[in-house]
# Entry
Amino acid sequence: MSSERFDCHYCKDSLLGKKYIMKEDTQYCTKCYENLFANCCEECSLPIGCNCKDLSYKDRHWHEQCFKCANCSRSLAEKAFAAKDNLLLCTECYAHDYSSKCSTCKKTIMPGSRKMEYKGNSWHETCFLCHRCQQPIGTKSFIPKDTGYFCVPCFEKQFAYQCCACKKAITTGGVTYQDKPWHRECFLCIGCKKQLSGQRFTSRENYPYCLECFSNLYAKKCVGCTRPITSLAGAKYISFEERQWHSECFTCLQCSVSLVGRGFLTQRDNILCTDCGREK
# Structure
């Protein structure tokens, strides 16, 4: 009996005594395998044969000897590299042509190294220093001032005003009142402690008050409704013999007609229109 045949799945040539390649439990001669399955090299466009290493990057393939820097032609096999516009470059060529320069030491910031970027400038992470203490700022918060950068503690020590209420540094915003700095959240009505920033307010003996507290504490009271009268809120009022009325409250006690701009009579603490006064 003849021995069982062992042929290439594609061309049917016998594989006995020959080199072959298995793919998905199927055998192929090397020629058929390369024609059917071998990848084409990005550099030379030739198939990457069974006897060659197939180096790949993002679904692209190269012979080992073709996998090299597009600029200096040095081999990139087993070396770090970077991609730019579909070209592969060694880290030195990429850094020379495309990497940013550190604003402090003026040296190239190599691809993959830790860096800091701010308003178009770049630094090695270890070169981005506080202008005052000269320590690396790293990922901590910082504040730009003139041409330098400061960590928050150094900025507060050197530049920030201190709030006259809480005595802590004011780093953003703030309110100035009587030439003194305040945090917005610290500038409060002395009466009700309501925040006054962005609100209308007045003062008494150098203390700030919201209009409501000032009116309740210091404004004259209307004889008619007993509520405060304050011109700060835009109210109009009538004054007569050290007594005051809101304009809308200055009415005849008996018939309630408005007495603003009209003659009136007094009866003890009351005011009457001339018609009602004559009837008395």
